[in-house]
TrEMBL record:
Protein name, per record: DUF87 domain-containing protein
Organism: Pelagerythrobacter marinus
PANTHER family, per the entry: HELICASE MJ1565-RELATED
Segments of skewed composition (Low complexity): 311-323
Region called Disordered, residue ranges: 311-349
Taxonomic superkingdom: Bacteria
Ranges where the AAA+ ATPase domain occurs: 24-390
Pfam families: DUF87
Compositionally biased spans, kind Gly residues: 324-338
Length: 500
């Protein structure tokens, strides 16, 4: 008996089934403009197959975290873990056969891409004994497999294209069935799209996307106009797991997720013009002078060890045959070295801080990856015989950010105050935040874009502009731009304002 699910109904009301076993061997491409119902389709597919097969979702917008409660998916916040921890989590996911959602909405775009690429690569490189069948869903795939170079760094683009190509081209032998969803077929790398044998094409309007969709569906180009006329939630389906000829499908309802937002009109406020003017303009200067309150601190991220139990529990809920891929013994491998007695310390914490400070002062140090910096740090400590308890990679990143931001020029009280404010600042923006806070505390001009680029480890001025926008959305700084081109940065909790 085949493992089939119903994803919707055709024009005559007959159910349209999806063969999950065939999908594992042939992969799936979903295309549809924003508002076409693409995320609804993915959710329906995930919900219906949740008890049949392990699922791994790469979620850049946080749309699928609601699968956790009704279906037992483990949500992993990509912003809460270091690259090494993300890779270790991916290996444990394959070992324990856990269904997970990698939520990336807390990261800026390039960090989302790097995190997803390292995660997918670790899934792909798992040991052969953990090659269990799994659906790997990548939403907004044009971000992770772009057809042309964009604003992201070239090494990032090569990394993510390699990971996505491995998933779609070579993942089948490792049990990984790629499901990629994109808004624009023209923006998706062709070698990634070409590996899918099943297609679900939703509404699209641009001629280049309609022509590519029609080609994939085996339709004549004059029939491509049909794709433009599709309603929300309606798709054209083709492939060995669905239908041998193009079939119109209306996707069925889902159980999880928030209620659909209503886009209709609503009555305008009935305030008189004078009252509205008073509400908008009254006491505006004093409100603008108030510092923006800091956002509440996020809940602490669970340690990777805490996720293991949840992953194991999620894996046990799968509906695969008993005994298949039990993964026994995998948990013990994850703890290799635990409990080993640490050697006697050969140095003090001041010595360790001195090593980090010396690394931060070196030209180009901030442009290296966190893993390369940490390996260099460990090598220096071994050369100096500092064999005591050394900071892990996460602690090292924060100490390196503090050292590279130049806080040593501040007095002890102000330094402690800034570090207290930075306690819940994400690691990826900690260094620029400290540099801005230090300048504000001293009443100096805001750091130039070049200085922020140095501490952030980027050579792109555009990334610094996006960085400041991202920090403002997080409530870490307030950016004020006047019409003359001047810019001032306000740090909540620091009285002085850094201007340039």
């Amino acid at each position: 008996m085949k493992a089939t699910i119903t994803i919707g109904h055709d024009a005559g009301g007959a159910p349209v089934d999806f063969d999950v076993e065939e999908l594992l061997a042939t992969r799936l491409l979903v295309q549809g403009n924003s508002g076409s119902g693409k995320s609804h389709l993915l959710r329906r597919l995930l919900e219906e197959s949740a008890q049949m097969v392990q699922q791994v979702v790469i979620d850049p917008e946080g749309d699928f975290v609601s699968l956790a409660e009704p279906f037992g998916h483990v949500v992993i916040d990509g912003a809460a873990y270091s690259p090494a921890e993300i890779e270790a989590l991916a290996r444990r996911i394959r070992a324990h056969r856990a269904s997970v959602v990698l939520a990336l909405e807390g990261l800026e775009v390039e960090q989302q891409i790097r995190c997803a690429a390292q995660f997918l690569t670790a899934l792909f490189d798992a040991p052969r004994e953990h090659w269990y069948p799994a659906l790997v869903v990548v939403d907004e795939a044009q971000m992770f497999a772009p057809s042309v170079a964009g604003e992201i760094a070239e090494d990032t683009r090569r990394m993510t294209l390699g990971a996505m190509t491995n998933l779609m081209c070579r993942g089948r032998k490792r049990g990984l069935a790629g499901i990629v969803a994109t808004q624009r077929l023209a923006k998706l790398a062709k070698n990634v799209a070409a590996e899918a044998s099943n297609f679900l094409m939703g509404r699209t309007f641009l001629d280049i996307d309609m022509v590519r969709a029609a080609d994939l569906l085996g339709m004549e180009r004059r029939q491509a106009e049909r794709i433009r006329e599709l309603e929300r939630g309606h798709f054209l389906a083709l492939g060995p797991a669905i239908s041998r000829r193009p079939l119109a499908v209306k996707i069925g309802p889902v159980k999880s997720g928030s209620a659909a937002r209503k886009d209709g009109l609503m009555p305008l406020p009935d305030a008189a013009p004078e009252e509205m003017e008073s509400l908008l303009l009254g006491d505006l200067a004093s409100e603008a002078a108030k510092p923006v309150p800091a956002p509440p601190p996020p809940p602490p991220a669970p340690a990777p060890e805490q996720l293991v139990e949840a992953m194991a529990a999620a894996g046990q809920q799968g509906a695969s045959p008993a005994g298949e891929g039990s993964g026994e013994g995998a948990g013990t491998r994850g703890g290799e070295g635990d409990g080993a007695p640490a050697p006697d310390a050969g140095g003090t914490s001041e010595d360790i801080e001195g090593v980090i400070a010396a690394m931060a002062r070196e030209d180009g140090a901030t442009f290296q990856s966190a893993s390369a910096l940490y390996q260099g740090f460990l090598l220096r400590c071994r050369k100096l015989r500092l064999v005591g308890p050394l900071p892990d990679m996460t602690a090292f990143r924060r100490r390196f950010a503090i050292a590279s931001a130049g806080l040593d020029r501040l007095d002890e009280e102000m330094r402690a105050r800034i570090l207290g404010l930075a306690q819940n600042v994400p690691d990826d923006v900690l260094a620029p935040y400290l540099a801005i806070a230090a300048a504000a505390a001293e009443g100096l001009a805001a750091p130039e874009d070049e200085e922020l680029a140095r501490v952030y480890g980027s050579r792109s001025p555009g990334r610094i502009r996006r960085l400041l926008e991202h920090m403002e959305r997080l409530g870490l700084v307030v950016v004020r731009q006047d019409f003359g081109g001047g810019r001032s940065l306000l740090v909540p909790g620091i009285e002085s304002v850094a201007s340039d």
